[in-house]
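USER: I would love a firmer grasp of how sequence relates to backbone shape in proteins. This is the protein in question:
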Amino acid sequence: MAQRHFPKRLAVALSLTLVVSLGLAAGTAWAYYTDTNKANGMIQFSYDPEPPKTEVKEDKDNLDKVITVKNTGEVDAMVRVKVFAPVIDGLAVTENAGAAPDYAQVESNGWTQKVNNNGEGWWYYTEPVSPGDSTEPLRVHVEVDTEKVTHPFDITVVQQCAGAKLFDPAKPFLGTFADGDKYKEAE
């Protein structure tokens, strides 16, 4: 007769063991999710309620593109520009070109590429642009061999701006852009 009740007793014992272990585990999980700890100290949150705003203006001069950036915001802005030209046999593009006939690449009119870690081809304007004002022109000279280039192409201009709060004419700091702080290199 003892053997007949053994499977029932074993099942009841296993069930009780399972219920007790789940109850203990639930208490531990509840404590894990409700435990709190207060931290000391403070992290300063900075928010610029008046970020700089700029727009690019692109004018054509024959095949050349003449670029200026206008500050449309309410605070001084530091700006940079990047020109993307397609790589096509028969197309030659020179950024910030000088006067004809040589159109050599020059750093003038307040634009420079002599900036720390500037292997990306950005042109930086070295002075803050006041609200309502524009940069000096940045010229992109384009030469096309019409025998080799028979299809249309586009030269794209991208610009970014940063606040000019920390600008000091005696220091080389040009602004904090998306890829970090930028400084003008010594000449």
Summary: The chain has one helix and ten strands. The beta strands are 54-61, 64-71, 77-84, 91-95, 111-112, 123-125, 138-144, 156-163, 173-177, 180-183.
